[in-house]
């Protein structure tokens, strides 16, 4: 949701040129426009929303796209893209949701008031511009994307949605792996206080989240604000939905998008690329060439303007690897051809490292002290994965420096051939805790010599365990498309702390890592 770093990232983020041009796109470009007109839109409860629109000066009716601004930003966010669409024959309207900047009211966080507001904005556009009521699309980044998806289930006039860096399950974003995310929520909190007016409901929700109280109320609040809650309504309206996110999105991990995409029954497309929240599409907001915004334009041309761009006949799942190669697939299920199982072997006393590969080992264990961090970590929300997208350099760990008192470490043999990881890896980990609650964080590295570049990581917390009794944990890593080169190794690190998460550990408690345990890698 928050994109406070957007102004810093826009001029730096690398982007790919469009995959292909079409005659239809060329024919649509370059129409004269009205220029931007700034307007106030009064919605149902009397709240005034700040907005702007730009339209072609040619006779209508015209297809239309409504942009909804991101958390902490306003309706100026989409000027470059709105201008480009207007020159293609669209009415392009952008607005600032309630509670932010000069729009009235308090922040509703994609709640019922925000959803009703979007329909009132559509009403205003149809009454005051030459927009065609039968050809309306919604688009947005982050907050605007989440609102757009939910609105498509409540307003049948929406024919297409382009949702970039969006969430579909806010509960999973807040509590994925049963683990809270303090850095992500802190960004939400700071942005809402500095650039908006948090509602009493939002303030209470954030306070309770940090205090770890009234969690059922927070979960209910999150479900109301999740597109996955309304997937049947969305399917009934059958809008064409484009989802584009980053594999490393530190606010909205990619697996929720994959699940939501699988439930959609209308026209749909899923694009995933390396990077972090709102980074991959950032250059497009500045009007620079950008593969995500190229897809957005083609999507709206196809499903709103009625121009055949060919996108409906292309593979609907597009993955960009860590080398920025683009791959198209007919379905999510087809991205991998099988699963490689890597057993976790007994950890050696000599170097505190165990083998990763072969059959899982039973009967041996490694005791670590929980509640103490190691040098294995996932970095800083937005910054770490964002900089990786810019530079290609992931968080790096010197493996001998990872404390074996506080972590389990396993490494594979040198791989004669490279490995192409496609999808969500899973880890079955048998632990024996000395306390009833705790947290583990697993990290998978691409290892060259003693240095490992982070591929993916995942936390998992538990409660209600019986101290001293074995407990089998199933950790599901975020989806990725990562090519491990030949002559590299894989390394798996399991510890109990990471700055990205609020854990359930007791400092000084022990955790025995045993077997059988294994890592399953989906491979192409």
Which secondary structure elements does this structure contain, and how are they paired or packed?
Layout: H1 6-9, H2 23-28, E1 37-42, E2 48-54, E3 62-68, H3 79-87, E4 91-95, H4 112-128, E5 131-141, H5 143-151, E6 158-164, H6 170-175, H7 182-195, H8 200-211, H9 215-224, H10 231-237, E7 240-246, H11 255-263, E8 268-273, H12 282-285, H13 291-305, E9 317-320, E10 326-329, E11 338-343, E12 354-355, E13 366-369, H14 383-391, E14 396-398, E15 408-411, E16 419-423, E17 426-433, E18 438-448, E19 451-462, E20 471-476, E21 480-484, E22 489-495, E23 510-523
Parallel strand pairs: 3-4, 3-5, 5-6, 6-7, 7-8, 8-9, 12-15
Antiparallel strand pairs: 1-2, 2-4, 9-10, 11-23, 13-23, 14-19, 15-22, 16-21, 17-20, 17-23, 18-19, 18-22
Describe it for me?
The protein has 524 residues and is an alpha/beta fold. It has 14 helices and 23 strands. It is globular, with a radius of gyration of 24 Å. The model is unreliable at 1-27 (pLDDT under 50).
Alpha-carbon Rg, integer: 24 Å
Beta-strand level of the residues, as a percent range? 25-35%
Proportion in helices: 25-40%
Number of strands: 23
Give the CA-based shape.
globular
Terminal CA distance: 32 Å
Helix tally equals 14
Q: What is the chains' assembly state?
A: single chain
**Which sheet architecture does the biggest sheet show?**
10 strands, mixed
**Would you tell me the structural class of the helices and strands?**
alpha/beta
Strands of the widest sheet, in order across it, are 1-2-4-3-5-6-7-8-9-10
Mean pLDDT: 93
Q: Runs with pLDDT <50, length 5+?
A: 1-27
